[in-house]
Amino acid sequence: MVRVYVDESGNMGTAGEYFVLAAVVTRDEKAEARLKRIIRKEQVLNAKGEKLPAKIKRGELKFSRMKFPQRQRILDEISREKGIDVFYFVAYKPKVSLLTAGKEKNLVYNYFSKLLMARVFKRYEDDFEIIFDQRSTAVKSMNSLTEYIELSAVTEFPNLTQKTIRVNQADSRTNLLLQAADVVAGAGGQAYQLHNLHFLEILGTRTKMIDEFPKRGFVGSLKFSIGKLQLLYKLRGF
Predict the structure, then answer these.
(1) CA 12, CA 62: separation in Å to the nearest integer?
(2) Using alpha carbons only, how large is the chain's radius of gyration in Å?
(3) CATH label of the domain that carries residue 176
(4) DSSP assignment of 45-103, as one string?
(5) What would the pLDDT profile of 51-75 be if each residue is shown by its tens digit?
(6) Whole-angstrom Cα distance, residue 70 to residue 171?
(7) Per-residue confidence band for 24, with pLDDT thresholds at 50, 70 and 90
(8) 167, 170, 211, 219: least surrounded by Cβ within 10 Å?
(9) Do residues 222 and 191 lie in contact, with contact meaning Cβ atoms separated by under 8 Å?
């Protein structure tokens, strides 16, 4: 079974020009177990490798609260995991008519999630479990999100009609894989919001897709820069 962990960077309000959704895909149980170990280890280490206070050790890892070395260390370890893939959906908010027209943000989030998952569905032919952070997805919109994505899978991708598609929520405070997705989303958010590609570059060929939306009018595209870097990685055998 393919498992997909989805988290975001940014918001759909007026702060910042970009909204980033990231999907961390684990293709086998061994890769998922290794990713859990990466996050668990970082829960008990600070950027200098010293033990954290107990109240922080039990806490949630968030990209926004991490120091530079810790962010770099986590992303570097993720980049070495062959059983993990990363997908991005990036919206340039000033040109998203659904947002400028004031449509309900839950519905826009669902639509963005469906577009992100369409990229994932194209790449694998397997059963899927897709996990969203329950604090990002309102309870009242979860049923519609579940139906939306499951219907998209079986109607738009004939190779998945006989596959099981499950969409669930989890609490990122206790779900290590959602915390990994937060770090990955943060790398993408920093690249677009601050024009700093350092953390996104670390992921290298683990990043399988960056989908920028809308295709017409998107400002600040990074696809060309990342594409050139990934080609270099491939030529060097990474």
Answers:
(1) 19
(2) 17
(3) 3.30.420.10
(4) --TTSPPPPHHHHTS---GGG--HHHHHHHHHHHHT-TTEEEEEEEEEGGG-HHHHTT-
(5) 545 444 457 899 999 989 999 999 9
(6) 22
(7) very high
(8) 219
(9) yes
pLDDT at 144: 84
At 75-124, the pLDDT tens digits run 999 999 999 999 999 999 999 999 999 888 888 999 999 999 999 999 99
Query: At 25, phi and psi to the nearest 5?
Result: -105, 125
Amino acid at the residue 117? M
**Total number of domains in the chain:** 1
Query: Closest Cα partner for 183 from 102, 37, 66?
Result: 66
Instruction: Say whether the peptide bond before residue 214 is cis (omega within 30 degrees of 0).
Output: yes
Helix (H) or strand (E) holding 159: none
Pairing of strands 84-92, 18-26: antiparallel
Instruction: Record the tokens describing residue 67, joined without a space.
Output: 């120091």
**Local structure of 14: helix, strand or coil:** coil
What percent of the chain lies above the pLDDT cut of 90?
71
Contacts of 54 (CB under 8 A, 6+ apart): none
Q: What percent of the chain has pLDDT over 70?
A: 87
pTM of the model: 0.90
